[in-house]
């Protein structure tokens, strides 16, 4: 860790404060990323899920009525997306290269975990 000269984001020209909310939600490329992720998840789930910070960042799915497998897939996708942002958010072209691998990985972990606990 080191001290930085400015509190503003160095990844865009927005002059926004470089906060966790900016990194995970407000940054324009990340907003586009979430929109595309939610389109993919909507198609996989067979139901529309909108890019909402409560759902995407906090996993608040109370407004949704999905079955267990849909919930597993949604949470796997959201977790993979956040992991991708955390590790690669500043390499915008590689975001989609790794997110599907992350979705499958998280989904498989969820399936194995649930099979062990049932
Ligand atoms: Zn920025």
Layout: helices, strands, pairs:
Layout: H1 20-26, H2 28-45, H3 53-58, H4 68-88, H5 95-117
Bound molecules: zinc ion.
Explain how this protein is built.
With 118 residues, this protein is mainly alpha-helical. It has one domain (31-117). Helices cover 64% and strands 0% of the residues. It contains five helices and no strands. It has helices at 20-26, 28-45, 53-58, 68-88, 95-117. The radius of gyration is 16 Å and the shape is elongated. The chain binds zinc ion. Zinc ion binds next to loops.
Helix content: 55-70%
Count of folded domains? 1
Q: Which ranges are low-confidence, i.e. pLDDT below 50, for 5 or more consecutive residues? A: none
Approximate strand percentage: under 5%
Q: Please outline the major beta sheet.
A: none
Tally of separate helices: 5
Q: First CA to last CA: what distance? A: 43 Å
- Shape, per Cα inertia axes: elongated
Bound molecules: zinc ion
Mean pLDDT reading: 84
The run of helices and strands is HHHHH
What class, by secondary structure content? mainly alpha
Topology, number of strands: 0
Question: What Rg do the Cα atoms give?
Answer: 16 Å
């Amino acid at each position: 860790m080191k001290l930085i000269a400015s509190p503003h984001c160095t990844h865009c020209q927005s002059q926004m404060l470089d906060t966790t909310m900016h990194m995970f939600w407000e940054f324009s490329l990340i907003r586009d990323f979430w929109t595309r992720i939610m389109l993919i998840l909507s198609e996989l789930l067979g139901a529309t899920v909108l890019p909402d910070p409560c759902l995407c960042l906090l996993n608040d799915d109370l407004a949704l009525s999905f079955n267990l497998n849909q919930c597993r897939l949604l949470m796997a996708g959201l977790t993979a997306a956040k992991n991708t942002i955390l590790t690669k958010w500043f390499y915008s072209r590689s975001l989609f290269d790794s997110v599907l691998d992350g979705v499958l990985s998280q989904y498989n972990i969820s399936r194995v975990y649930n099979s062990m606990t049932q």
